[in-house]
Specification:
The protein has 182 residues and is an all-alpha fold. It contains 9 helices and no strands. It has helices at 5-16, 21-43, 50-73, 81-102, 113-122, 125-132, 137-148, 153-160, 167-181. 19% of the residues are buried. Mean pLDDT is 84; it is low at 111-116.
Amino acid sequence: MSLSEIDRILLQQCIDGAPRAWQDFVERFLGLVIHVANHTAQAKGIKLDESLRDDLVAEVFLVLISNDRGVLRRFRRNSSLATYLTVIARRVISRRLFDLVGNQEIEVDAGHQKIASLATRIENREEVERLLERLDPQESNVVRMYHLEGKSYHEISQVVGLAENSIGPLLTRARQKMREGA
């Protein structure tokens, strides 16, 4: 689905800093970000209380406006704005939940303990290196930059010479290969 005219105008107004544009943007996409927070937590076996969910949602919107709305400026407009925001929200929320689980600030329910156990094992540098050996050099490089060096898709795309929107699918394939080798 392509970018709708309403979203195109709203996006441009936000980027330009038009009066009330940010409020309109938040009102339009708040429900979407809440849904992504709930769904992402549920998929990871984490029960969200209202306070944590609100913190996650606020963090997503903070990321959207940080660096002079850099995430919004990088939107290539070749998909719907809702799709783009879903990807961004899922990434922000997943990282935050991973940090909270790793710091033992929240618990994963019993059905998802295996996932938490895998996340803990992957913190072991030797295990990560062994798993990276299963990947081709480009995949290994991208995984290393994203997960170990904390680089963004944009930064990775500049280093490896791939389109920014191909980094996510490459990471997904690489993670699957790594899971199969775990």
